[in-house]
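Our preliminary data section would be incomplete without showing what the modeling component actually yields. Below, a chain of 77 amino acids is followed by its predicted structure, encoded as tokens that our downstream tools consume directly.
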Amino acid sequence: MNGNGSVWQTTAGLTGATCTYADFWVNHVLVLQTGAKCAGAGTELEAQWTGASFPAGTLLCNTWPGISGEPCETIGS
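Predicted structure:
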């Protein structure tokens, strides 16, 4: 995840064929959801939010429904 103030990017590696989408969370609130992406095992899905800007201390997290994990990053000063 890159929460550098201009592009917030997330990726997910697939272990089996699936359809999913990226959820972008700001301070535990869902603020953006991408369209569905479908792919086979061994594929890496990618989604990004451009033009994003957040103040220091903001907690940014991503989820991909059906894929385990929730990477998070707190924006520094």
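The mean pLDDT is 91. The radius of gyration is 13 Å. Preliminary results of this kind motivate Aim 1 of the renewal.
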